[in-house]
Amino acid sequence: MEDLIFGTLEQLSEGLEKRQFSSVELTKAFIERTHAVDKFVKAFLSFDEKKTLAEAEASDVRRARGQSFGRLDGIPVGLKDIFAEKDQHLTCGSRILERFVSPYDATVVKKLKGAGAVLWGRLNMDEFAMGSSSENSAFQVTSNPWDLDRIPGGSSSGSAAAVAAGEVPLALGTDTGGSVRQPASMCGIVGLKPSYGRISRYGMVAYASSLDQAGPLARTTGGVAALLQILSGADPKDSTCARIHVPDYLAAIQANEGKKWTLGVPEEYFGEGLDSEVKSSVEKAIHFYETQGYVVRPIHLTSLGYAIPVYYIIATAEASSNLARYDGIRYTYRSPRAKNIDEVYDWSRSEGLGEEVKRRILLGTYVLSSGYYDAFYGKAQKVRRLIYNDFMRAFAEVDALVTPTSPMPAFKKGEKTNSPLAMYLSDIYTISVNLAGLPAISFPCGFTGNGLPIGCQLIGKPWEETTLLSMAYAFEKCHPFNLKIPNL
Amino acid sequence: MTQYEAVIGLEVHVQLKTQSKLFTQIPYRYGVEPNTLVDEVVLGLPGSLPVLNKAAVLKTVQVGLVFDCEIARQCKWDRKNYFYPDAPKNYQISQFDQPLCRGGHVEIELEGPARNIQGKHRKVALNRIHLEEDVGKLTHFGQESWIDYNRAGTPLIEIVSEPDMHSPEEVFAYLKSLVMHLQYVGASDCDMEKGQLRCDANISLRPRGATDLGTKVELKNLNSISGVCNGVRHEVNRQLQAIEQGKGVVQETRRWDADRSESFVMRSKEDAHDYRYFTDPDLCPICLSEADIQTQEKTLPEFPFDKQERYLRTLQLPYTVTSVICPDKRLSDFFESALGFYAKNPLGIANWIANDLLRELAAEDMHQAWKNLKMESRQVAALVELVDSGVISKQSAKEVFESMFKTGEDPQKIVKDKGLEIAIDVDALKMMCAEVIDAFPKPAEEFRSGKEKALNVLKGQVVKRTQGKVPVSEVDRLLRELLSQ
Amino acid sequence: MMHSEIDIDHLAKLARIELDEREREIFLNQLQDIVGYCSKVCEADVENLEPMVHSFSHEGNFWAEDAPECRENGVDFLSRNAPEMKEKQIVVPRVL
User: B38 and C77: CB-CB below 8 Å?
Assistant: First the structure.
């Protein structure tokens, strides 16, 4: 069974289909792997083996009756601890929700259950998805499976690390400013942020509502596409989930094989601050596309310089309001010292929320407060339109943009914790995608000299996930980085 | 007071009568077990999202149309951020700068010089009407406050008037008219005891003739119509005193304590909230087409003041009767339905409805009484017809009505079962009439010499002697016959 | 920077987060840096640009019919995670 844990989704689905192994056997393999390596990786915040095995058993029963739900039936899937799963913990990596148990299922969880997926574990994250390293988790710092002294990226840290370490074959993360793509890039796997509105946000704890989007992570493009297929589509419970046609992603990838697209290379993404190894690796990927007959042309996205300020104004403003509900009154941690109502609020939040979360709440409160709204929040919303228009201008000429996912490979734990601003700047290439609501994918395009994965990002037109998946697949077919596994 | 003029604006919150809450399909009912009408959306559990209730929007549009507001073709939702234990998300979803309805006015009727004389009408200008979600309910026990979130998320409209009222009497007339119109379109029952209507007032004084507004005080917790009037009256006097004593008025928010008939400072201007309004990213804008609005317009009933005018002019009903029937849509619907069965005597029907029916209904809970009402409008019409055609006497009619109300049986059947038809012995009656003419020669003589009214005296005497058991029309006929001989 | 005067105590009060002396100082410095950096948006030329709230334009209204759906055990949504409850109600220290 051990070779299974690094198998592709296609291999696992086929094995289940041909009865080479059962879902229980497969699930047990991942559980055992988790027991073996998670003490180093620390990707899991909690898990419920009994529940997970019961789900696997149910899947086997279905299959035996010839009633399999399809490709994902019986396949373990890990959830970032931000998705509500009925009767399971939902901590969001925060002390304030440490004991919270969800009484309901997120729409994506319902969809996964409906597809027969076996839900394995609750994965670590930066508190309320605020962070790029897992160092903002209230509970533990996840390690990068390729180098345990380094961070796995974030905020979907556990999701990326668990997939890379073979603890689960597929995982779900969320991406508000790069939180799926950046850890996917740093852990050497594939991660997709769909167009805003592609996947329901119902039951996904909000950080910044207008930017948040769930995204699949897997070792291969095929795994990402299969998961995306299940998750996509309108939801009557989410007003911001688009009522728009969902294509058959895997069929589209096949249909697009050999297709030659036009790629734009935004010069601003290759300037100062970009690690030289990352740069040359991404340039090699661009060169590969050229050799495949793609048209590659330079492009300008001059608004890049505004992306981080606009993001931090909009995201923190929304967060300051979204996180107001964690107040010690109804369902969160309440400070045991609190004797009056003001202390319940002030102390519960002070004790229950971590430093980065407080910092962003304070910033968001500031940019919305009377006298500052116009200069900051109001202005940022207009600059956001500018960034969007910039992208749309580029997409008049090209099918997708190719950039590095992160300016540097995984950094050492503790390296950036003292400077929030430096940490923010590491999201420079991913953030504007969320502001514009575009789809983007990160796929492994190489390794640094000391064996750290490097990710390449493709940014697409709204609703054009298929283009990105097809392009990433074209690269993956010729560069099977997914066969390389970390030494744990 | 002669030197100063009070300027009053009201902010009235009204619970809309929808089946489910504003952003989730959980229903709301008053007085059920605490925290049973909740779900993840009502409680603001992590990950929950709001989905707008269509009916709440359309009802608000109807209310806007009733008050002649301009209906927004497009508007959005905003978050009003503040911490309070009854607010599950610590923000309220509301409409800040793009309300569903703008402008408009509420027609009010001021008290007339006497009860039976119609008062003056005027229009109080509205600023806006917007839709928002209600909060939960706090109950205080000793050192604790208990929170029930059943009410949280119920749709509320906030009707904001311009500072366009000048006396507690106008405030009273405004609220009366507001309630009447809201009930008419079925937007709300406006039961203040159940918290379906809540009111805050902005009050300032200015020298008579001035156009600028004085320093305003916001008065909160006005939770009965009389409470509003008392609170406003008290505040106007308090401000007048403050001005006369040279202290001036301080801008602040005060809380009205109806039990003590006093108000207390809640917060000063410096403590004003910074609500940090911003567009709610979880919700889409509302878009209304001309056709959408026209569709709502078609659902609107005849408005009460228009109805009253029609009753006064076309049906010639007395003002007092119209002032009872018109403000209550159920009464006026009942009346018009009865009129459809027997159009000859509108006043006869109206009197039964305005006096007897209303009295019976008011004997218990009005809502329940209407629900349980067995009697039909057709039966009231039939009853009036029975009296008019001399089949039963007015006195018996009372008995028939009571029985009809209790059992819902047709009046004809009741009359028959109880043997209430007038069995007239014409000869005996004629003799009695002759006796009365003899006994009262003066009115008899007057009538003969052309004084028509004098006949009433004689009629009254005959009716008295027969204990009202004969139709007046028959008495009338016989008296005239005898007097003309 | 023009916007760097930050009243950290006022913000903490609005956000309802108690800050100790150490946090107060750290956050004030960091916020000044971040706000200074964010002031960059002031330079952008955004004339004639509509503020962007959502990243895609919504076709038609998103609303639900007024059809009530009662949840059984509504109170379980609360009781399971409540810090303090009595007789099905959340209990807090007295308000006001």
Answer: yes
Pairing label, strands A262-266, A295-299: parallel
Collapsing DSSP states into helix, strand and coil, what is residue A391? helix
Domains of chain B (ranges, CATH numbers): 4-292 (no CATH), 302-418 (no CATH), 426-483 (1.10.10)
Domains and CATH numbers, chain A: 2-262+461-483 (3.90.1300.10)
Torsion of CA A256, A259, A262, A268, to 10 degrees: 60
Cβ neighbours of residue B9 closer than 8 Å, sequence gap 6 or more:
B127, B160, B161, B162, B163, B164, B165, B201, B202
Question: How big is the A-B interface in CB pairs under 8 Å?
Answer: 100
Number of H helices and number of E strands within chain C? 3, 3
Which ranges of B342-425 would DSSP assign to H, the alpha helix?
Answer: 346-351, 358-362, 366-372, 377-388, 394-407, 411-418
SS3 for A109? helix
Q: What number is the average pLDDT over the span A67-95?
A: 97
Q: Which residues pair with B222 in a beta bridge?
A: B199
User: Is B35 in contact with C87 (Cβ distance < 8 A)?
Assistant: no
Instruction: Indicate the pLDDT class of residue C3, thresholds 50, 70 and 90.
Output: very low
For residue A167, give the H/E element and its range.
Answer: none
Active site residue A155: yes
CA-to-CA dists, residue B437 to A46, B218, B443, B460, angstroms? 106, 71, 8, 12
Residue at A159: amino acid letter: S
User: How far is it between the farthest Cα atoms of chain B?
Assistant: 96
pTM: 0.92
Query: What is the rounded distance in angstroms from the CA atom of residue A218 to the CA atom of residue A9?
Result: 8
Query: pLDDT per residue over A114-139, tens digit each?
Result: 999 999 999 999 999 999 999 999 99
The residue from A28, A80, A193, A461 that is catalytic is A80
Counted across chains A and C, CB pairs separated by less than 8 A come out at: 174
* Distance of alpha carbon A147 from alpha carbon C6, whole angstroms: 41
Single-letter amino acid code for the residue at A154: G
pLDDT band at A20 (very low <50, low <70, confident <90, very high): very high
- Amino acid (one-letter) located at C64: A
Q: ipTM of the assembly?
A: 0.96
pLDDT attached to residue C2: 45
Q: What is the pLDDT of residue A174?
A: 98
| C90 Cβ neighbours under 8 A, 6+ residues apart | A329, A330, B35, B85, B146, B147, B149, C78, C82, C84
Domains of chain C in sequence order? 1-44 (1.10.20)
User: How far apart are the C-alpha atoms of A184 and A178, rounded to whole Å?
Assistant: 10
Of B49, B88, B282, the CB nearest to A325: B88
Distance between CA atoms of residues B292 and B219, nearest Å = 37
Å between A358 CA and nearest CA of chain C: 8
3-state helix, strand, coil split of chain C in percent (to 5) is: 35, 10, 55
Q: Residue B200 phi/psi, 5° resolution? A: -120, 150
Place of tokens 């209430």: B420
Strands A190-193 and B197-207: unpaired
pLDDT, mean of residues A402-407: 97
Which residues, including other chains, have CB under 8 Å from residue B154's CB and lie 6 or more apart? B15, B16, B21, B22, B28, B133, B134
Residue B118, number of CB atoms within 10 A of its CB: 17
Strands annotated E in A413-487: 440-447, 453-460
Rounded CA-CA distance B169/A360 in Å is 51
pLDDT category at A2 given cuts 50, 70, 90 is low
Pairing type for strands A118-123 and A76-80 reads parallel
Which secondary-structure segment (H or E) carries B46? none
Interface touch A202/B48, C-beta < 8 Å: yes
